[in-house]
Amino acid sequence: MDLPVDEWKSYILQKWSLLPKSIQVTISTAETLHDLFLHSSPLLQPEDEMFLKRLSGGYLVGKDPDASLFYREKGNQKFQAKDYMGAAVLYSKICLKDIVRAQTHGYPERLQPKLLLRKAECLVTLGRPQEASQTVTDLESSFAAKPTLSASQFQILQRTLCRVKVKVQEKENLPEIFPEALTKTFEGVDLREENEQIPGASSSVSLHIDPLKGRYLVATKDILPGELLVKEDAFVSVLNPGEVPLRPRGLESKWDIQVTNGDLHCHRCLRHTLAPVPCDGCSYAKYCSQECMQQAWDRYHSVECSLGALLLTLGVFCHVALRSTLLARFEDVGKVTKKLCGEMSNQGICLPESKNPVQTLKYDLGGEGDKKDKAVETPIPGCDINGKYERNYNAIFHLLPHTENHSPEHKFLCALSVSALCRQLEAAGLQAFTTDLKPTKLKAAEPPVLCAELSVWGVAMLRHMLQLQCNAQAITTIQQTGSKESLITDTRRVRLATALFPVVSLLNHSCSPNTSVSFIGTIATIRASQLIRSGQEILHCYGPHESRMGVAERRQKLRSQYFFDCDCPPCEREKQRPSAGPGRGAFRCHRCRALLQGDDVLSCSGPACMESVSRDLLVSRLQDLQRQVGAAQKHLRNGRLEVAIQLLLGCQSDAESFLSAEHSVVGEIEDALAQAYAALGDWEKSATHLQKSLQVVEVHHGPSSVEMGHELFKLAQVFFNGGRLAMSEDVFNC
């Protein structure tokens, strides 16, 4: 939910429509963000704030002692139904984090041995045998120093302790699980040689600027596929709360048992966790550790804590905007404030369309040339006076807001949302901003002093909110669907957080990029996905990819969100051949298997076949087939494998009679058959169907796509489980 909730959007749009025409014109033609904020903010009336307060009341983020009883009861129900994952999440909402925290909160001494034993078992299950072994040692020392148990209790505990010791030894002797080892490997990978002028980037790239396309990165030498080009921690990130519904009035229970991203991931580092450390002041923010909680509190959550419901109502973009300005306090705040007060009134700041495009059209910052070749007249936006790109608030500030391209209604919505947030900061007496804050002096008990010119920071937040439409980076992760207890599980890519990356934002778009991006927590890594020759631009995909949609749809999406007409090579090629023939969702003739062509009535493209058929009839047949596939997948999830296979084989036969071999439904059927045979342990048949599914995925998404990589990984696992180790290795080496 990037923008505010629908109710607030509708309310503000209605308010806009009722404004006098003269005020609408004044806001629409405001030349600077300062003017836009200045003209919009006074229009926020007390009744508007009351409406927003009522909306925010639908989100329960405060502490409530009665909630623990509710979540414990619901957790018990999940546990009895053997939904252990769901039970763990609900228990974690109660608030005591884990065994260590239980010990520090007065857990009875007579039960401490049992608690330590449970801790050792948990550590074994989590794959942390060294810590488990240390816990066992501590427990044995505790027995020797202070025996508090009866003889019978001691014997029971001793037997359990022996079993745990055996498990620890087994874990210590097991090789590390491949995905976990791979993740640790990627976490430890650093740039081979970091760029001296672009922190977080490889020395293989340089920063350039163009009057039309702005800043961009170029290869300074040939770059091989897989080479790490950027490794950057986000300047700011906010966890995407997921679909958190507003609580309707009149419900029997005011608490929600829905599990969202906010329950499963640390709100600072985004690490997955089932036993989060909750904020002491609110029930929404949760962290993977005490350290993460303290860092978040020190840097921004001390201000955000009481505003949780309001921020959920105003959306992620507003939240990122606030957090960006809060993080600016940890830099030279006097310099930042001067920049905000001075440069924000400069209408043409940093725009590529500047009347003086010759300011510095090229920076070979990563090259080996002489220093005299790097001399500049005016630094590239985001760089210091020495031409070094700053991965700090200065770089964030210089991201373009594209104010002139946003609709007046959208700018009004953003301005009033930020105004409401600023008034809440004032009303709560939150001392959010200061002019002399130093990170080393920050203490949770001594909040900084409120800046007298809160409106200056309001304009900054408005700027960031407008920037985010074009510059926000979605941090994604692979999420498992289905229960872990199920025989069949699948995965999907989901949006985990919204972030700003100063270096990643330098990359321009291509519908067929030469890089791929991945995330570990808040860290983005960008690698070359193909050979990039020296002098070629480093390109990233903003979402619309040639393998996923046609040129018209791609260009429309890019124009509406990013305000440019894409002229990358794939778009130019497709524009020149608009009638290249049937797509990948084509029907084919049931007689001769040739593709069908046409509009309402499709005719066979075979040279000697006169077959024709109504499109409506084929669409109806396709919908019926999709329903059958859905029914088969339901049987598959419920463990009725034989029934599912029979249904899927029937679907496969039906699909072959009227769908092209590249149709997405054909791939879906083959993938489901691969899952079913894998669940039965028939790895040979599973691999056969998975290879057919791979052919469809490659046609739809391309050989270098993330989707293709995901399917290849599945195929390698199937070969490995079937004992075909050489073929599994070949898949990874292909």
From TrEMBL:
Q: Does the keyword Zinc-finger apply?
A: yes
Q: What sequence ranges are listed for the domain MYND-type?
A: 266-305
One GO term under biological process is: methylation
Cited Gene3D superfamilies: 6.10.140.2220, SET domain, Tetratricopeptide repeat domain
Main location per UniProt?
Answer: cytoplasm
Looking at the record, the residues that make up the SET domain are 203-543
Q: Name one GO cellular component term.
A: nucleus
Any keyword Zinc?
A: yes
The alphabetical list of record keywords is:
Cytoplasm, Metal-binding, Methyltransferase, Nucleus, S-adenosyl-L-methionine, Transferase, Zinc, Zinc-finger
Its UniProt entry gives the catalysed reaction(s) as: L-lysyl-[protein] + S-adenosyl-L-methionine = N(6)-methyl-L-lysyl-[protein] + S-adenosyl-L-homocysteine + H(+)
Under Pfam families, the record lists: SET (PF00856), zf-MYND (PF01753)
Q: Name one GO molecular function term.
A: zinc ion binding
Compartments reported by the entry? Cytoplasm; Nucleus
Read off the PANTHER family from this record.
SET AND MYND DOMAIN-CONTAINING PROTEIN 4 (PTHR46165:SF2)
State the protein's purpose: Protein-lysine N-methyltransferase. Monomethylates PRMT5, modulating its transcriptional activity. May also act as a histone methyltransferase. Plays a critical role in cardiac development. Acts as a key epigenetic regulator of gene expression during cardiac development via its dual activities as a methyltransferase and negative regulator of HDAC1.
Protein name stated in the entry? Protein-lysine N-methyltransferase SMYD4
